[in-house]
C-alpha cells in the first residue's frame, strides 16, 4: 500500500530528506577519542569475561530480527498533528544516537585491529548492531515520507572529543539506559496493545538485548582498567555522568510528553522508572550511584525541566535580542542551579556492598 501521509513540517535539505536537528546541549552527539591510548590498554585481568562477551557478539542473535514485514505496509494517517511531529523527532533522535554509536565503534574497530584484536572485533560487531538499529529507524522515518541522509550527517555533525575513560562511562550508561527505555516501553505496550501507534515497538524486546550486551562489554572493559573505577576522581566522574545522562533524558522527555501520552505513558513516571532501574544497574560496576530516592531529587529535575520548557518558548519568541538573551540566560541559570544542587547531593557508596573492584 502506498503511504499517503503528508510530510511533517520539517526543514528539508532536498525533497524527502530531513535537515538534521540543530545541535544543542540536549541533542545526541558524535564522539571521537584517543585511539592510541585505547590501543595501549592492558585488558589481561578481565580478558576471560571480554572473550565471553565477544562470543555472544559473534553469535549474532538478532541477525534475522530487524526485517520489516507486512505490518508496516499501510498508511499512518492516524498519527497526525503534534503527535506526528513528536514521533518523527523521536525517530530522528533515536536514529542519530544509534548512528553515532556506529561511527565511533566502527572507527575503534578499524584503529585497534592490529594492536588489540579482541577489542577491535568487539567494537566492529557492536558497530554492526548499531548500523542495523540506525537503518531500521531511518526506514521507519521513511513511512512518514522523510529520511536522514546519514552520509551528510557524518560530515556535517561536530564531533566531541572524550578521553577513553569518559567514553566508557558515557557509552556504558547510554547502552544501559537504552535497555531500560526500550524494555519499559515494550512491556507497557505488551500489556496495553491498544496504545501501539506504530509497530516498531514490537521489535524493542530483542533490540534492547543488543543494548544490554553492549553495556556489559563496557562494564567488563572498565573492570579491566581498575583505575577507571577505584580512585576518588572516578567517584566524582561517575556522579557527573549519571546525572548528565539522567537530566538530559528527563528534560528531553518532559518537553515531549505528548509523544509518551500517545503511547498511554506518563512521561514523568516513565522517566522515573527508567532512571531508578538504570541507577540500580550502574551500581553493579560504578563505585557510587545517585540517591534518586532523596525527596529533592525529582523535585529539582522537575524545576529544571520547567525552566527548559520556558527556555524553548523564549528561543522561539520574537522578543528583541537583548531581552531575549537576558530571559534565556535566566532560564539557563535556573537549570544550572538545580543540576549543581543535584550533583552535591550525597551519593550512595556501592563499595561496602559490592567490594573493591580489582
List the helices and strands and how they pair.
Blueprint: E1 12-14, E2 17-18, E3 30-32, H1 35-39, H2 47-59, H3 81-112, H4 117-142, H5 150-156, E4 159-161, H6 164-191, H7 204-223, H8 227-230, H9 232-255, H10 257-262, H11 267-282, E5 288-289, H12 297-315, H13 321-344, E6 348-349, H14 351-354
Parallel strand pairs: 3-4
Antiparallel strand pairs: 1-2, 5-6
Report what the structure shows.
The chain is mainly alpha-helical. It is 64% helix and 4% strand. The strands form 3 sheets. Strands 1-2 form a two-stranded antiparallel sheet. It has a two-stranded parallel sheet with strand order 3-4. The longest helix is centred in the first third of the chain and has 32 residues, at 81-112. The model is unreliable at 1-8 (pLDDT under 50).
Contiguous uncertain segments of 5+ residues: 1-8
Main sheet: strand order: 1-2
Shape assignment:
globular
The helix/strand class is: mainly alpha
- As a percent range, the share of strand residues is under 5%
The major pleated sheet works out as: 2 strands, antiparallel
Task: Summarize model confidence as the mean pLDDT.
Answer: 91
Q: Find the count of extended strands (DSSP E, 2+ residues).
A: 6
Order of helices and strands: EEEHHHHHEHHHHHHEHHEH
Gyration radius over CA: 21 Å
First and last CA, distance: 58 Å
The helix fraction, in percent, is: 55-70%
The number of helical segments is: 14
Amino acid at each position: 500500500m502506498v503511504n499517503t501521509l503528508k510530510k511533517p513540517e520539517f526543514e528539508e535539505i532536498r525533497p524527502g530528506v530531513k535537515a538534521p536537528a540543530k545541535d544543542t546541549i540536549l541533542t545526541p552527539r558524535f564522539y571521537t577519542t584517543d585511539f592510541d591510548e585505547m590501543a595501549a590498554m592492558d585488558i589481561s585481568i578481565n580478558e576471560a569475561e571480554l572473550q565471553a562477551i565477544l562470543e555472544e557478539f559473534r553469535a549474532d542473535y538478532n541477525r534475522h530480527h530487524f526485517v520489516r514485514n507486512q505490518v508496516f505496509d499501510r498508511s499512518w494517517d492516524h498519527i497526525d498533528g503534534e503527535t506526528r511531529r513528536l514521533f518523527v523527532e523521536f525517530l530522528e533522535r533515536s536514529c542519530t544516537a544509534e548512528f553515532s554509536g556506529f561511527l565511533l565503534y566502527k572507527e575503534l574497530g578499524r584503529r585497534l585491529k592490529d594492536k588489540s584484536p579482541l577489542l577491535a572485533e568487539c567494537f566492529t560487531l557492536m558497530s554492526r548492531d548499531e548500523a542495523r538499529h540506525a537503518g531500521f529507524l531511518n526506514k521507519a522515518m521513511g513511512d512518514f515520507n522523510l529520511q536522514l541522509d546519514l552520509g551528510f550527517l557524518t560530515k556535517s555533525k561536530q564531533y566531541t572529543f572524550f578521553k577513553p575513560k569518559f567514553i566508557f562511562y558515557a557509552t556504558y550508561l547510554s547502552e544501559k539506559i537504552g535497555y531500560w527505555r526500550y524494555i519499559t516501553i515494550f512491556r507497557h505496550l505488551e500489556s496495553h496493545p491498544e496504545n501501539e501507534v506504530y509497530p516498531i515497538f514490537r521489535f524493542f524486546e530483542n533490540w534492547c538485548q543488543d543494548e544490554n550486551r553492549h553495556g556489559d562489554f563496557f562494564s567488563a572493559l572498565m573492570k579491566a582498567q581498575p583505575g577507571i573505577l577505584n580512585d576518588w576522581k572516578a567517584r566524582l566522574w561517575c556522579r557527573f555522568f549519571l546525572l548528565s545522562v539522567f537530566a538530559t533524558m528527563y528534560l528531553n522527555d518532559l518537553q515531549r510528553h505528548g509523544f509518551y501520552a500517545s503511547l498511554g505513558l506518563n512521561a514523568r513516571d516513565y522517566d522515573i522508572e527508567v532512571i531508578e532501574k538504570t541507577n540500580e544497574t550502574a551500581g553493579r560496576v560504578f563505585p557510587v550511584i545517585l540517591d534518586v530516592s532523596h525527596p529533592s531529587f525529582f523535585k529539582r529535575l522537575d524545576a529544571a525541566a520547567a525552566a527548559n520548557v520556558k527556555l524553548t518558548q523564549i528561543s522561539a519568541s520574537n522578543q528583541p535580542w537583548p531581552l531575549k538573551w537576558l530571559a534565556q540566560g535566566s532560564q539557563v541559570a535556573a537549570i544550572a542551579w538545580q543540576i549543581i544542587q543535584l550533583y552535591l547531593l550525597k551519593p550512595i557508596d556501592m563499595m561496602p556492598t559490592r567490594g573493591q573492584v580489582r
